[in-house]
Request: fold
Amino acid sequence: MEDPDTRRGMVGLLLCSGGWAALELGFLITPGTLGYAFYLGSLVVGLATVGAWLYFCSAYTGREFHRNRLYRAVAVSVYLAVVAVKLTNPFHGFYFATQFVADPFPHLAITHGVFHWVVTGLSYALVTVGFFMLFELFLEADYDTRPLGILVGITAIPAVLDIVGYVSDLLLDINHEPLGVALFALGVLYVYDEAFLAVQLTDGVDEAVVYLDDDGCIKETNGKAQRLFPALSGSRGQNLETVLPAVTEILQTDEQILERNRDAGAEYYLVSDTSFSLGQVDIGRMVVFTDVTESERRRRELARQNEQLEGFATAIRHELLNTLQIITGRVSVAGDALNRGNVGLAKESLQSTSETAERMSEIVNGLATLARHGQTIDETTAVDLMPIVDGAWERADTDGLTMAADVEGQVIADPTRLRDLFESGFTFAAHNDASTVTVSREADEIVITDDGTPAGQTASEAFFEYGGAIPDAAAGMTLPNLRMLARTHGWDVTLDTEYQDGVRVVISNVTVPGPLEN
Reply:
């Protein structure tokens, strides 16, 4: 026990308990005047055990009762007053009376008086206060209280033995409490030392905690850890790598961020591993899981937005260069035509220049809109997929493309951005020389498939790069925009590279309101 006050309280409890038991033994084996003195001494030392117990409980639970001068003065005063009554018992007999008997063996039979039962009741009340402090700490630290309950039960057994000895001849009418106190102290030291140490070390730590020995085996876990990782239930003594291999892998990385997919979505935990020692000896490790979901989501969102801004910059640069080249070429053609007196060609070239500039303006406005839509969505709702798909189809420039959809049911999304997502998919299919595009869903996936030009040897990620101009410059931003709009919902978008009859876009991890209908 590294904490000096906790150690001092436990040492006092062991010494008083041992002294109490030794004096009781002396009383049993030494009848007569010496036996009377042994019993009187056991009463004095036994009462001190209550003080040592409360000192230990206060120090162990982080309280300051054992340091409070007023409490200590009152405790010492009450103790000395009761001891005075006990030591003067030969003169007044208020505490107990003795009688020498030979059956079942020669010994002094004790008859306890009223004052003894009053003091015993007060002692048990104080002992209960100590147990209350321990249970409160175990509950606050979110640890299993059953081991502590077992120890409490063992400590309470002597009270039952006292009552049996008082009302019957089955047991001697003596104090059996040294047995319970000794068993409790030994239980703390040897049986449940891991739990007691883990609770004390993690007092005030409002996180999931796994306590390991120096070999990496699980010694104790709190309730939050078991709720976060159900596999920890009943895992005491097993190696952490066997029970939670993902956690072991995370501890070997620099990032140490663990992602957990729960019912409410992805959650993120900072995994910290701290070793602690007693003197020069390593006695264990504490693995703490700190919930950093909000900050990690903001960090990832910022990284996504930075990547998106870089893509926007690339797209705008690409479009500007293309447009400037086209405008420069068309103006040059118009100038040459005018020099040759070909007014019609000059007019046509200048009209083409105007259309190109207008197209550039539309692209820039579209990028500005996407920049606003690129923020992570704060509010979503359950929307029917089919009306969204139909609305996107009406808005898309499909140029003779046909569409078939089988998307019954709902998803959790922003309706406007979801419509824009499908519109981007349909526009891409039209530019990909497709004749038909289909939309389907299964579980948490939405799939957009066209029968146009296959990806072939083109890397799948090239389809999602701004400025990549796939399949052509006019539609080069459709799939990047589709992925961006999906990511604002927390979804993933990939290209099915095994599909060779066209292009198949797979939107996965789609948020759904409940069980899906077939």
About this structure: The longest helix spans residues 293-339. The mean pLDDT is 81. The chain has 16 helices and 14 strands.
